[in-house]
Amino acid sequence: MDEDNKKFGMMTRALHCGWKCDPATGASGLPIYASSAFQFHDTAHAAKLFNLEEDGFIYSRLSNPTVCAFEEGLNALEGGFGCVATSSGQAAFTHLVAALCSSGDNLVVSTKVYGGTLTLLQNVFSRFGVETRLVDGDHPCQFEQTIDDRTCGMITETIGNPLMNVAPLETLAHISERHGVPLIIDNTFASPALCRPIEWGANIVVHSTTKYISGNGNLVGGAIIDGGNFDWGRYPDKFPTIAKPDPAYHGVNFSERFGASALWAKLHMAIIRDLGGCPSAFDAYLLHLSISTLCLRMKRHSENALEVAKFLEAHPAVEWVRYPGLTSHPQNDMAKIYLKDGCGGMIAFSVKGGVEAGRKLLDSLKLIGHMANLGDSRTLIIHPASTTHSQLSSEQRKAAGLSDGLIRLSVGLEDTADIFDDLSAGLEAAAR
Ligand SMILES: *Cc1c(COP(=O)(O)O)cnc(C)c1O
Questions:
Q1: What is the Cα–Cα distance from 80 to 228, expressed in whole angstroms?
Q2: Which residues line ligand 1 (CB under 6 A)?
Q3: From CA 401, how far away is CA 165, in angstroms rounded?
Q4: Which atom of ligand 1 is nearest to the CA of 93?
């Protein structure tokens, strides 16, 4: 990241970083560069671009000016060294694992992460010889006990999907540093407006930008942010793709050539070039527009969700509520450290009467949307066991602490009185 950006507050970063105006026309709005390729000045210029001797645009699978503006904006918000945007959150993890791991390596992963992340790692990457070792993310010592000399990453979420566990970031960062294993944090639920894991020692941040970064439920996207704080060159045997000559790139050693931003360079210049999971300029345009309001939205999401969580906790038809901002939350003390500006919009709860009562609640809601998304400005609800986490076995769901009656609520920006009205009617129907 441009060191100058770090002096700015979050609102200023959200409004100014990544884009000033169009150098050619002075236009203040970010243009949608709907272009597959970019004209070379001459053959010497073309050769320089291909040899990484000069910065510039070649082909939109590698990079695109609209996408770059969004990447720089999100990178400034996370306080990273460089960002690579991808076509989805799943693509972000796919590209990251492809950059870090080779056959025979392993990843140590919290059981309480998004079901799709576990499915990708356990069903796809396992077939390529990358082992996933599951640990209880609430007990950092389990990460430490499971790491060995082929561990290429520790993975968890700032706030877990869907149980709302808050990660003990500093303890995990110490373990990561002691063992030379990068700490990878999925920051989708908190967003950089509420938590910046790199400031707490994480090395890599991953996002599903589909969620709060967009906030409009109008696209699918992802991003990887390199903290620039991992010394790849110290572990050439563990990370040969970054710290040894790359035969797929004229034998360049990314660690020697790019220093702190070696992972970003590897992802940007090689991995996304090879795997091809780039976002469209149009989606990057929408995302860039969305981040200008991220801090305002996350503040309101947090305020609304705290009110709704308290409302649910006091409701006789509700069995239990999990929200990091409630004093009843098991990691409320952690939330006070890492989520000082608010705990976001996600709530997990269970209604009395199990799956059947939950079904009645969901079917009687009128304002709240029933769909497989979250982080939208509009309030959304879902039953994970029968939808988002249904690909997991019941044992995997149990390991993730996911009971069959759990309901996930993504509290939006509406007037809370209207959310209460809809939930009250639904909970009454559920209790009947
Ligand atoms: C949705 C989600 C993902 C996957 O992202 P997609 O954009 O749907 O591919 C990853 N992690 C978390 C925490 C998510 O909520």
A1: 7
A2: 88-90, 114, 116-117, 157, 161, 186, 188-189, 208, 210-211, 220, 222
A3: 10
A4: 10
Alpha-carbon separation of residue 136 from 9, 167, 203, 354, 363 (angstroms): 35, 11, 20, 25, 34
Which residue ranges of the chain lie beneath pLDDT 70?
A: 1-3, 400
Residue from 211, 213, 346, 389 whose mutation best tests the ligand 1 pocket (most atoms within 8 A of CB)? 211
C-alpha to C-alpha distances, 311 to 321, 325, 413, 425, 428, nearest whole angstrom: 10, 13, 16, 13, 14
Quote the ligand 1 centre to 116 CA distance (angstroms). 7
Question: How confident is the model at residue 201, as a pLDDT?
Answer: 98
Give residue 356's identity as a one-letter amino acid code.
E
pTM for the predicted model, two decimal places: 0.96
pLDDT of residue 249: 81
Which pLDDT tens digit goes with each residue over 325-376? 999 999 999 999 999 999 999 999 999 988 889 899 999 999 999 999 999 9
Neighbours of 369 (CB within 10 A): 15
Question: Can you point out the beta strands (E) in 13-161?
Answer: 82-86, 106-110, 131-135, 151-157
